[in-house]
Amino acid sequence: MKIEILGSGCKKCTNLAADVEQVAKGLALDFELEKVTDMTTILDYGVMSTPAIVINGVVMSAGNVPSHAEIELLLNQANNTQ
Amino acid sequence: MLIWFSVLADWLVYDLLGLSSQNQLGQAVHFFVEDTTKIFALLIVMIYAIGWLRASLNVERVRDYLSGKPKVVGYGLGSGFGAITPFCSCSSIPVFLGFTSAGIPIGITMAFLLTSPLINEVAILLLFSLLGLKVTLLYVLTGITIGILGGALLDLLKAERWLQPLAAKAYARGQLSTATAIPPGQSSTQAASTMGWQQRHQFAKSETVEIFGRVWKWVIIGVGIGAALHGFVPAGWLEANLGDGQWWSVPLAVLMGIPLYANATGVIPVLESLLLQGVPLGTTLAFCMSTVAVSFPEFVMLKQVMQWRLLALLFVLLLVSFTILGWVLNLV
Hints:
The structure holds 2 protein chains of 2 kinds.
Chain A: E1 2-6, H1 11-26, E2 32-36, H2 39-44, E3 52-55, E4 58-62, H3 68-80
Parallel strand pairs in A: 1-2
Antiparallel strand pairs in A: 1-3, 3-4
Helix pairs in contact in A: 1-3
Chain B: H1 3-16, H2 24-53, H3 59-66, H4 71-84, H5 92-101, H6 106-118, H7 121-131, H8 133-156, H9 165-176, H10 197-232, H11 237-242, H12 249-257, H13 264-276, H14 281-293, H15 296-302, H16 308-331
Helix pairs in contact in B: 1-2, 2-7, 2-10, 4-6, 4-8, 5-6, 5-9, 6-8, 7-8, 7-13, 8-16, 10-13, 12-14, 12-16, 13-14, 14-16
């Protein structure tokens, strides 16, 4: 699956990217992770509060850094609908 | 209730550390201990309480609410929401673009973004506990007024002329379609209106941890400077040099505030000392607003969506309004 972390590159966004990567590895998912800082892309997703998690083109969370358990839930959810 | 912090400081500083209440060092340390403990306790309680109340408010809902509102009420609403909506300053750009592409006029968006750093729960709480109700109300009113007038002025000048291509595209998109420009299903990814107790608690808790983690060191620095001013600058020296009657002291305070980029948490404890030393209220508040609202990193970030001309205009606008504010408040 394709995971994108949207954000301007602030500390929260870097933290979130690291968290998501760790959880996804823990779940042994097949994934690629990309950090998106380009504002046009962020705007196209309709996201206003960063950091946000986008999985396979769908905005899963925005404006906060979810806990590991919540990230796991999001990843499983996206994995099942694939 | 707040007297307990003074009692605590008495005990710690005079009894435990054995410092004298008569000399400057003892007084400065006492001031420092009393203020830091008081501010820390208030911060934790208040950030949690406010987080609880505003858990279900987010920029997406504000945008949906503001789009399509007439300008006359829009500036006031934008400024008011700017004061209460929680959002990280690193989100300023996406918020600007998101509002603009939803067809919200630049002025209303800027009213939101201008008021946001000036007025926040931490600033209000500190002002209220350290400087009292009157100063807090004055501060909030002037902050909101600056947001409203700044926004209205930018619209009058047709500020949308000076956007960067990226933002101009968002603006064009917003003008094409009206309030329905928001793609359905994307408007609120976070669970919206109905929030349970558990979720509110979670949000309030994480806000408290996050904000406190960010500001505690500023409190220590701010109170430290305040304590030094309190204990070591001779009484009357500041008053004599920055007191009433010197018109230039207000613009000077505003200019000094620019490079001193701190957040409100660090500045307000310093204000307390400045006021105690006899610096007039207008000069003090102008200094505070300039420090909090005008920062170079923030302006460099806005460069992504605004051309230099608009940025410069904004910069001058803020400096002039803080100066006028200072003069007016010094008169009353």
